[in-house]
Amino acid sequence: MQNAISNSSLWRPWTPITQQTNSMRIVEAQGNRVRDAEGNWYLDGISGVLNASCGHGHPRLIEAATLQFQQLVHYDPMVSSHDPAETLASRLAEILPGELSETCLLNSGSEATEAAIRIALQYWRNIGEDRNRVITFEAAYHGTTFLAQQLSGLPFTVSEWAPPFPIDHVVLPASPRAVRTEEGADALIAEFERALRSGPPAAAVMVEPLLGLGGCVVLPAGFLARLRELCDRHGALLILDEVFCGFGRTGRMFGFEHEGITPDIVTMSKGISGGYLPLAATTVTSAIKESFTREPVAQGLRYGHTTGGHAVASAVANAVLDVMADEKLVENSATQGATLLEGLRQLESSPLITDVRGLGLVVAIETDTSESAAAIATAAAQAGVMTRHERGVIRIAPPLTITTDDTVELLETIGTAVAVASAADR
Ligand SMILES: Cc1ncc(COP(=O)(O)O)c(C=O)c1O
Hints:
Bound molecules: pyridoxal-5'-phosphate
Largest sheet: 7 strands, mixed
Protein name: Aspartate aminotransferase family protein
Strand order of the largest sheet: 4-12-11-10-7-5-6
GO molecular function, one term: identical protein binding
Helix content: 25-40%
CATH topology of the largest domain: Aspartate Aminotransferase, domain 2
InterPro entries: Aminotrans_3, Aminotrans_3_PPA_site, Class-III_PLP-dep_AT, PyrdxlP-dep_Trfase, PyrdxlP-dep_Trfase_major, PyrdxlP-dep_Trfase_small
Number of helices: 13
Cofactor: pyridoxal 5'-phosphate
Number of strands: 17
Keywords: Aminotransferase, Pyridoxal phosphate, Transferase
């Protein structure tokens, strides 16, 4: 039957219904490139859904999935555990610092947020303290389950329903460019201090190491270390959302490593399985898990999903860690990212560009208007480079497998796209 509102029966998320027609269709992906239905190949400047960190069609990841499919697809996590999940949880405990050793495996970043908040709130009850207030950035994005969405104050995702517990949003006190300065850092930490002081004691502060969907805002050096210290002073748990930054995206295995801190809870998804299969993890300290042995919650965590920690997804995640080590992808992210950032910074002389910022292999180009960002992204796509833009910010986050030649191509194409958009703007 003919669909009255679009030429497709597929309801795509985050896309206005009236704009769902005539969209591009991606039919193939290999290495760092993707092909559309018309046969055009693109350099993938956005790693699929910001998750294809090992590139597309990696033979070792396909082999790991195939072998696991043949041996055991999955089994009820309530009845039994299985080797891929056990191995993954212990490998995460090895690569995460301090006492971060207890992992729940889930399917999506939103579920990881959901688990982190439920665990944090339940922890305070377990130890007999009445804390349920959560503090996040207004420009945060922690996902879109009902609870995760409540944490964001971003206009495009803000929830229409009241949250089940108090949430305070910290507004960036300056522009993304100004917030990176020493004064910006002081002003930002003062905002968090104010949020922690005002109102009842906070249960948790949840932040991303870099505000991904909130405009790729690079937080000032020293911010996370100072926030850790603030949380300790106020007794609040610090939750780091590594869904976007984790697994090498920022040039370190985890974004918080840039500051040498140890969070109380870490959420992960996207790069954990290289985007090959849905997977997420929430890792907490042993002290937090231990609190769940007490009455009345001695039955443990009352949260989980049928396919959480799916055996094939977990097997792929174990292979991702091997590939990352063998191909030195964290190191490549740092070196290629530095070249990319330095090259794109040359574009700041264009009147269309107001800021270029980044960390590792996530670089954002902020433009003067949403129209400029759209024009640059369109010109880049026509020249064979896929990027993503939202609210005037173009985001570039290629696979960590990007080569030096790919980086040169990216820089040349984006440079030409800015020139094309500038000429059209005159
Ligand atoms: C920082 C961050 N947290 C959480 C999420 C939600 O993850 P998912 O889309 O897998 O639910 C995202 C998704 O982009 C994210 O960037």
